[in-house]
Write a structure and sequence with these properties.
Layout (H helix, E strand, L loop, with lengths): L4 H13 L4 H8 L3 H14 L20 H12 L3 H11 L6 H10 L27 E8 L5 E7 L5 E7 L4 H15 L7 E4 L19 H9 L2 E4 L9 H13 L6 H10 L11 H7 L2 H13 L8
Parallel strand pairs: 1-4, 4-5
Antiparallel strand pairs: 1-2, 2-3
Helix pairs in contact: 1-3, 2-3, 4-5, 5-6
């Protein structure tokens, strides 16, 4: 027989308070005498009716009283979904919380919606990234719904936006200006080594001579600065997927800021990044430069304290 809480109450009160034998109680309730003895012993020791353990999976955690406020605050401040908020709370606040719990709170507060498309098992996604900041940057152009053109220089390793701007039209001149801004801003730490772009005319001359050479201002700039120009494969946008993902973030959140500089500052310094283990691009950018900076420091000491970085 499977005991219920009411059966336990009857057993312990009859055995302990009224003197019913454990043997008789075992027969009446169709359980072992040993089980009756265990329940009676616990009642004698605590004075409380023993509570049966519920079957099934244990709750994921006992959540803090202000868990709903924490979830809402994270959603409003970082504009993140349930999975990222849950991971943030587990890492930053040491709160053991399930993704489903966060999604439930967001749904109740009209801050999320059910996604019918998330069905079936997806193929695992493998992410490739450089180990050190400024090893490679991504560049591309994107037109927003208002007709403005956006271009940015994104660090492959940290996802930090090194420079970016909004323009009435796309051009090689603007592309050079943004890359040059990023190059000059960080060359005292480490020169940008590679730039990854598509075959757009702002970056590359598709008409070339028999030797594969062409006179193109962006290509010439890269050669002048010693930056290796890497081209994405045709019809393979995944090669530049990191900046495409940033454009998605731009479309979702740009309207909340007065200027693109304010938006970039929020993206770099405030918004935690899922693929960066819930850290901001700014944090990761400098962390992944530490070994290079230390190497420069020791090299400078060897040369008598002269920093020859130009």
């Amino acid at each position: 027989m499977t005991l219920e809480d009411d059966d336990v109450r009857k057993i312990v009160t009859w055995v302990v308070d009224k003197g019913l034998s454990t043997e008789q109680a075992a027969k009446d309730f169709d359980v072992s005498q040993r089980r009756i003895q265990q329940l009676a012993k616990k009642y004698r020791e605590t004075g409380k009716i023993p509570m049966l353990k519920k079957r099934g999976r244990k709750p994921y955690a006992d959540y803090p009283e202000d868990i709903e406020e924490r979830i809402i605050q994270a959603s409003e401040e970082f504009q993140m979904g349930a999975t990222l908020i849950a991971k943030y709370l587990r890492k930053k606040d040491d709160v053991k919380i399930a993704d489903s719990k966060v999604h439930e709170v967001l749904l109740e507060n009209n801050m999320a919606r059910e996604n019918d498309n998330k069905k079936g098992r997806k193929k695992p996604w493998v992410r490739y990234e450089r180990n050190h900041s400024l090893s490679a940057v991504h560049m591309d152009w994107h037109q927003n719904k208002h007709g403005k053109w956006i271009c940015a220089v994104l660090d492959d390793s940290s996802r930090k936006i090194l420079s970016g701007g909004e323009y009435n039209s796309r051009s090689a001149e603007a592309s050079i200006e943004l890359l040059d801004e990023a190059f000059k801003k960080f060359r005292h730490v480490r020169p940008i080594r590679e730039v990854i772009t598509d075959h757009g005319t702002e970056f590359y001359a598709n008409k070339r001579d028999k030797d594969g050479e062409a006179d193109h201002s962006f290509e010439n700039y890269c050669k002048e600065k010693g930056i290796k120009h890497l081209l994405c494969k045709y019809n393979h946008p995944q090669s530049n997927g990191k900046i495409e993902k940033w454009f998605d973030t731009y479309e979702k959140h740009r309207y909340r800021f007065g200027s693109i500089d304010e938006f970039i500052d929020w993206y770099n310094h405030i918004k935690p990044h899922f693929s960066l283990d819930i850290r901001t691009p700014e944090e990761v950018f400098w962390k992944r430069l530490r070994s290079y900076i230390l190497g420069n420091f020791f090299e400078m000491i060897k040369k008598g304290g002269k920093n020859e970085t130009k």
